[in-house]
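Quick start: load a record and inspect it. Here is 3-hydroxyacyl-[acyl-carrier-protein] dehydratase:
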Amino acid sequence: MVANIFNKLIHLQNFTSILEKLPYSPPFLFVDTLQHVDENGTEGSYTFPDDSFFYLGHFKQAPVTPGVILTEVMAQIGVVCLGIFLLSDTLTSNIAIAMTGTQVDFYKPVFPGETVTVRSTKEYFRFNKLSCKVEMLNSRGELVCRGTISGMMKPTTHA
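Running the structure step on this input writes:
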């Protein structure tokens, strides 16, 4: 029992440490919580606020979350959080991030106020390049989108 509580506290500290190292801030921070992170993948969630800036024009009468934002949510939770975890032993400063490739298929819309869950599975991590299979589910467990996202990460000395 004590060991389980201790392990949960360590996981929470790791998750908090990862979230603190993310190089984003509102309104472009799309990670609310991390439920799982290990060397093979992540799971996390994000709730889209009703007043998010991108709903004003996409679309005027029936707001829908743009696909590029859904892709960014998957990249932040599924690739960047995993990359920070994988580099945690050597990461002592800020990080520079560059997305190197995306291929995403979309199946269902995401509306204002919805919570999504992102799951990623590492395909490879070499020379600071990380590629992951990533999927997004809505709160009903339905597949919203899935694909492959790749990016590069490296420590930097400036913000």
